[in-house]
Specification:
Blueprint: H1 20-23, H2 27-33, E1 38-43, E2 46-58, E3 86-91, E4 95-101, E5 110-120, H3 122-128, H4 142-149, E6 161-162, E7 165-168, E8 178-181, E9 195-198
Antiparallel strand pairs: 1-2, 1-7, 2-5, 2-9, 3-4, 4-5, 6-7, 8-9
Length: 211
Amino acid sequence: MTRNAAPRARRSAFGPVLGRSFYDRPTEIVARELLGTVLECETADGIAAGRIVETEAYIGEHDLACHAAVGRTERTAPLYGPPGNAYVYFIYGMYWCFNAVTRAVGEPSAVLVRAIEPVEGVDLMRVRRPKARRLIDVANGPGKLCIALGITGAHNTLPLQKPPLVIRRGEAIPDDRVAITPRIGITQWADAPLRWIVADSPFVSKGPRAG
């Protein structure tokens, strides 16, 4: 390779990176089809990745549990941006949460990734989550998975089509392995069936498994 040659894209056993068109669809569809894909984060410490086993859809200003319910602010501006960007926010003064922005520009919505099954960089993830004695507890929650993968506010608004943060195609999860339930930890629109899980996965967060 010559000095000026462009570096080749990293090959992965988990398939190609999902393009923007994947996210430019109704949020509920994206949330369902993200199950089985692989969220990958590259940091100075290495690459860590996990298969997505739990998602929640937040579908716009009319969704009172969605951050966009308050309208466009400095915090919520990424929700109004291009589909296929990251929306990473801070909660409880201690945890980051990762979301993939969906639908067209100006239609604020996103999918919250709630849990992953570690599949690459497992040792690194365990170092970052030393209190998790079992592998199933390393990334079974939105804050936990961000710690395990090294996702922080520095990733907010980044495109998900190139490192350091990407989502790969992974594997398709058939409908008979998927359950739909209400979202967790909210008080507004709490009964809306907008949470998708791989029902037989031990890596989902604590919460209802049937619906």
